[in-house]
Amino acid sequence: MSDPLKDKSQRKEKRTGKVPSEGSHGVRGKETTGKTKDSISTVSFMDELGHHDDNVRMPVTMENTYQMGPYKRFPVLAVTDILKDVLTSYLQEEKYEVEWSQKMTKTICEVIRARVKDLMIPRYKIVVLVHIGQLTGQSMQINSRCLWDASSDTFASYSFKNSSLYGVATVYAIYFE
Fold first, then answer.
1. Is 21 a domain residue?
2. What's this model's pTM, rounded to 2 decimal places?
3. Looking at residue 167, what is its pLDDT?
4. Residue 170's closest CA among 129, 142, 140?
């Protein structure tokens, strides 16, 4: 069987949940009586949902709400308190190390994002950025640019510093019309 046809049949078997076992591979075997038979055995399995290469997600269609602005504003003060709490609790007693800071920025981003999403502010997209660096007397400027609607989009930011490192966390809230 040619390679494209073989790949297609394997994908079809994978979708139906049946895969040939390791020993069979479509080989014809002999019985003890001398007759030949097809010895294709199958093994059933179930993949995790959402991890299929062949599945194509259907687009979600949403109806117009004709809502031009947010009903509930993004709570900048509450988010600033979250940033202060998370940065202080994670970085208070730490010393700067390169590998540690790479892992810690991801962890802090995930924690902040989860706590902001727990506020359940509808129709806002949340972007979280965290920077951790070593304090050695240098200066640093962090800039960002994006398409912004000043009437509904906003951000919250907090800076933390101890004897060996600094941390800056920023949460951008972009209103989704």
1. no
2. 0.63
3. 94
4. 129
